[in-house]
Amino acid sequence: MSDLKPAASARPPPRLRLALALVVAGALLGGILRPGAMQRLGLLDENIPWFLDSYALLATSDAVQAGRDPWQRNPLDVYHRAHSYSDWWFVLGDLGLKRSDNFLLGGAMVALFLGVAWLLLAPRSRAELAWQVALVLSPPVLLAVNRANNDLVIFALLGLGLWLVRRASTGRLAGYGAAVALATGLKFYPMAAAGAVMLLRPARRGVVWAAALSAAALLVFASVYQDFLRAEFPAPIGVYLFGATVFWKQLGLEATALVPVSLVLLAAGALLLAWRGHTTGLTDGDAGDEGERLAFLAGALLLLACFAGGTSYAYRWIFALWLLPWLWRRGWLAPADAPGRMMARGTALLLTIVMWMDGFFCLALNSAGAITESAMLRAFRTWNLCTQPLVWMLMALLAGWLAAALLATWRELRRPAAKA
Length: 420
Fold this sequence. Notes:
By secondary structure, the chain is mostly helical.
């Protein structure tokens, strides 16, 4: 990528941006007023309150204010969850927020997420609008909204940094770096997004920026490292899961020990795709909006880091929304002979399937009538075994796009030496 600048193509029609906002807002409002659809999708239970995860943050802050140890099981939380993040979140209590303010905090987190997503998603046609709406309203995104998980805050922070980069020159990369550092202090894993600037052009400049942003993120991570060691990361069970370890667990294997195996498999698939030339295009001069490419890289890096690192709930898929603008541009707006065009279409199709498949499974399961808990767990296990290969394929594709771009950067870095 050369110096970051706005895309040369026409600005997205304002009416389509307005339609995106109205359709998403209307659908969410309908889901709140008539929750039956969300219940059938397995996202809502009458025994589980809305904004469950923002409540846990406030319960932890209340525990700290009461002199309790937040790193132990917390009786003030609905499920007695211990704190799983850095102590930066305790500022909520310092600001005077309590559990009674949960709908204020959760609602603000959801509104911030939706606002930033709207800034980054700018449909250029009715077909692209329909696709973006389908993924913004996909079950994993609705799960994040329903629970008001603090991934929404991470999305908003990093998304604002990406938006600033798209709106201005590369000098605003410092703002993106600040967003990465702040997000790292809140939830550890966002430091992976620092590597997205590695693919700026010229290549040496991208390397310098990546080193600077990575150093800043690592310094922040070091400052909260003790919190990272004390944090509990309980492995969820069910359907809406995300992570390489999901498949290993269904096979009855020791998932944690197989994290290196997951990395090797993803790297092998990525290198094969890049070597065969299937995933080229991210560094092409005619690939369109460079800000879109930076967003794609940041989203892919976060998804891959979280996928390889362990198991979490499927709300991690919210970062896939950053992939959409560039995938559409490459798959449907690029010339017919553009490298990677058909693979971009395949990636977009597979992403859509993966983000909706668990929802359709829950719809089918909830339509089957009463079912015992043991039968439900068997159904979950069978479903995960059958569908996780699709997720692995998608992750290998994302890794392939990154690998091809890194190889192009490596070639450019070596070019002066080769000429000499």
